[in-house]
Amino acid sequence: MTQDEFRARTKGFAVETLKLCDQMPTQVSGQVVAKQLARCGSSVAANYRAACRARSKSECAAKLGIVEEEADESMLWLEITEEVGLVNPGTTRSLHKEANELLAMTVASIKTIRRNLSQSVIRDPKSAINLSRIDHE
To answer: In angstroms, what CA-CA distances link 90 with 3, 13, 15, 46, 80?
Structure first.
């Protein structure tokens, strides 16, 4: 998947999440869940865009770590939305599936970046400094 395709998917996830939040009831539980879900669902897209503009691989991995956290939190609020009965059963199924897929792809990207960072480290066995612990960018 290309960066543009992933960007479009995260943005689409944010849009669909916000649409779901607009359907939530106005009772306290609906408003609390809607606000939390709106924040983390839109944060997935915002932080992915930030990761795309990162100044280093380390910064990119850090931003993707936030994407990971926000996608996982989105899944939590989607589960709560159904369990509390704020929307019709099955309404959140496609969003939950998309959050899970975005989460899996994000984790894979983070692992790849970290692996590439660790392989690009210069190792000098004679050095008193352990260069493998230094984050090279």
So the answer is: 30, 17, 18, 27, 13
